[in-house]
Hints:
Low-confidence stretches: 1-43, 296-302
Number of helices: 9
Helix content: 25-40%
Number of domains: 3
Strand order of the largest sheet: 2-1-7-6-5-4-3
CATH class of the largest domain: Mainly Beta
Order of helices and strands: HHHHHEHHEEEEEEEEEEEEEHH
Amino acid sequence: MLVSYLQYNETPVDKSNTDGLAMSNRNATLAILVIASLLVSPVVVADENEDIPTNAQNTGVHDSLVAALSHAGLVSALQGEGPFTVFAPTDDAFAAAGIDLSTFDTDEENATLVDILTYHVYSGSVESSQVTDGMTATMLNGDDATFTVTNESVMIGDATVTTADVMASNGIIHVIDKVLMPPADAPDTTGCDAVIGVDDSGLAYDTPYLEVDVGATVCWIWTDESMAHNVAQIAKEGDTTRYMSGVYSGESLTTVDFRYTFDVDQTFNYICEPHATMGMAGQIVVGTGSIDVMEEEEDSSLPGFGAGIAALALLGAVLIAGRRLR
């Protein structure tokens, strides 16, 4: 790259021409900048007769990557026939991402690590000359990664390729300056007639009002929110405390997948308990919304209703006592 650049700028300049001299100085400055950028990039020495993990281990800047591959049990897979294309984050990239392998000690956590690492691997051979701006590739974990190509750089996601086309016996390594994080998996909404999440403010449902048919299943779904939320039915609109006999998703959590099927006409009011006083509430009109399922239960809590039940109980006791005296 540097040689071709210098060859391109070998055109003689008329030194008597001040404009030409200025152009020459600019070219020289640019050449120095190119050399400087190459010097700060990690120097990767590879042996085309060695596989990808062996070459990564020998670079001196991929110890964290090799350790992660070993922890996740992926070394032997990447020693296979391939070909593979690996986008290899440096040790500095792993440090910046805050990845501590000692914290990956459960099956679920190790599965997360495997997902991250396989998002850096493409099953096939891709040289830098084959990459075009906007191109996408399905990585080994099943998620797509997008490339950005400009005059200054080649990027995959938000990581810049600092050294390209490091050849190995079973594929290619491209060194990158950041650890790629797979996109969050889309929730399975099979069976959901409507889905309600949390809006960008984090303090409101993204669909605070909804109309559905009787028999519809409504799903409240959010993932890795910055604050915990839940779904708690209230007796009437405007209440800020949960109706204890109502529909309830459970304690507030940052990740929730709660589903409820509405089988009668009703107007369903609900809140997020931690943020009810801040106005985080919702309403669902089911069918005509004509039946308030709270009415009968609220009536049963009226003082007159309770007194009537007590009187009937007392009358029954008197009758039983009278029979015993006979």
